[in-house]
Amino acid sequence: MPEPGQAESEPSMSRVEPLATPDKSQVIASPRTYQPPEPPGLVTRMRKHWSDYLYIAPSLLVMAVVIGYPLVYTVWLGFYRDDPFTGTRSWVGMQNYEDLLWGDFSERFWDVTRNTFYWTVFSTFFAFVLGFGAALMIHKEFFGRGFVRGLLLIPWVISFVAAAYVWRWLFHSDYGLISGMLMRWGWIDDQIIFLDDTSRVMPSLIVANVWKEFPFVMIMMLAGLQTVPEQLLRAARIDGANAWNQFLHITVPQVKSVMVITLLLLFVTNLNSFGLPWIMTGGGPANASMIWIVQIYTTAFRNLQFGLASAFSVILFIFMMAIGYFYVRALTGTDGNRRST
Description:
Layout: H1 42-48, H2 57-77, E1 80-82, E2 89-91, H3 95-102, H4 106-139, H5 145-152, H6 154-157, H7 160-170, H8 177-184, H9 201-225, H10 230-238, H11 243-254, H12 256-271, H13 275-280, H14 292-301, H15 306-340
Antiparallel strand pairs: 1-2
Helix pairs in contact: 2-15, 3-4, 3-15, 4-9, 4-12, 9-12, 10-11, 12-15, 14-15
């Protein structure tokens, strides 16, 4: 209360400071975007979970003996040369590799290499195209789809030996079914020489190989097609996209990783294919169908040149390791994308 005779003072109010205007140079133009951490690589995951590998150590030990010993012995044998008449073995160092690449055996080596890539590339391409087309066909709903799926799997479940003898009979120069049917229909006058002609033998082998391998591509791509979200396709149809645009801009990006893995597996399989070309032609005629794996077998077990065959095998192994690197990259990249989503 104020004293008598004193005027009542005005109530005190706290003084409000004006807000300071921020410096324009300190204003952030845009907010910082969140960068998710990159998924760890294969080596990092193996180092982190090293104790888990103790459970599979016995299996790894067996694999080291079964796979590691032949590999080391093959590399070691590539530095020696065997005499098939005396049975002696002598150290030659890098001579076997020099003979293969630019020496006495170089012409045969590069001819076989050309045949191998011709066989591998065309077999992989046509088997993938045919298998992908079959997967697109049986992915749709239609009456009898299960029966068609089982029918298309028949080439895959048949063994390579049986398939090779069947196609060898179909392509036979004297009583082959293909030439016989074409002559009966009046389309040709004489028998077509498939396997005994140097210009037709490799395409004939590729046809048989594509028939044998396209179901594998069909199974792989069908599994990939079943993971494509139906909501994306439905939204694209609502926006007016036709079937080709849906396939090109939705289906292909969604199954891209499956396509890469399937192509790499198919390429490796064709590169190591032995049964079909060996049974049907044995590398002939005149080495027109000779590929790497058949040449290695012939050099080792027919010509008894184990050192030269081992050097050939090491070159093939290095090439296969390069393909395996890209396969692991594709596989780990797929796993990383799957975890990030």
